[in-house]
């Protein structure tokens, strides 16, 4: 089931932190870069975030997407899935949920250029590469956009 998460709740914030640490640790290994901000994000920072958090929850939280809404733009900040649920459609369902609920908006998202599974997922939805961002010497993220 997909639902909005009350990320201000301490236990929910802990669950978000646990999943994102697991998922971003794998992305960090792919990139050879452990400076991903959400990899080290404290629970209080999650609780105080102005992002909207949506979770995929079936008996336990399996994945999370968070984003901010600006004028005509959805800026996706994180899409994380617990590794034991990789390639089971969790991320796909979370993206579909956001796209369906924000028709007519433009979307932007960034991921590590070395994260081929994430890039393939975004491209499957029609996201187009917008630009490369060097986040550290020799370490790149790719920004994608989609007009919905």
UniProtKB/TrEMBL annotation:
Name of the protein described by the UniProt record: Alanine acetyltransferase
Record domain N-acetyltransferase: where: 10-148
Signal peptide: none
UniProt keywords, alphabetically: Acyltransferase, Transferase
Keyword Transferase: yes
Listed Pfam families: Acetyltransf_1
Acyltransferase is among the record's keywords: yes
InterPro entries linked: Acyl_CoA_acyltransferase (IPR016181), GNAT_dom (IPR000182)
Domain of life: Bacteria
PANTHER family in alphabetical order: PEPTIDYL-LYSINE N-ACETYLTRANSFERASE YJAB
């Amino acid at each position: 089931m997909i639902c909005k998460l009350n990320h201000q709740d301490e236990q929910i914030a802990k669950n978000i932190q646990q999943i994102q640490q697991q998922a971003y640790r794998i992305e960090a290994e792919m990139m050879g870069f452990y400076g991903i901000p959400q990899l080290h994000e404290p629970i209080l920072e999650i609780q105080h975030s102005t992002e909207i958090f949506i979770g995929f929850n079936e008996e336990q939280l399996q994945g999370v997407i968070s984003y901010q809404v600006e004028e005509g733009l959805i800026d996706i900040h994180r899409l994380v899935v617990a590794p034991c649920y990789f390639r089971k459609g969790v991320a796909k369902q979370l993206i579909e949920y956001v796209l369906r609920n924000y028709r007519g908006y433009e979307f932007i998202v960034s991921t590590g250029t070395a994260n081929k599974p994430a890039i393939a997922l975004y491209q499957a939805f029609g996201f187009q590469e917008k630009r490369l961002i060097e986040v550290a010497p020799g370490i790149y993220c790719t920004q994608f956009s989609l007009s919905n």
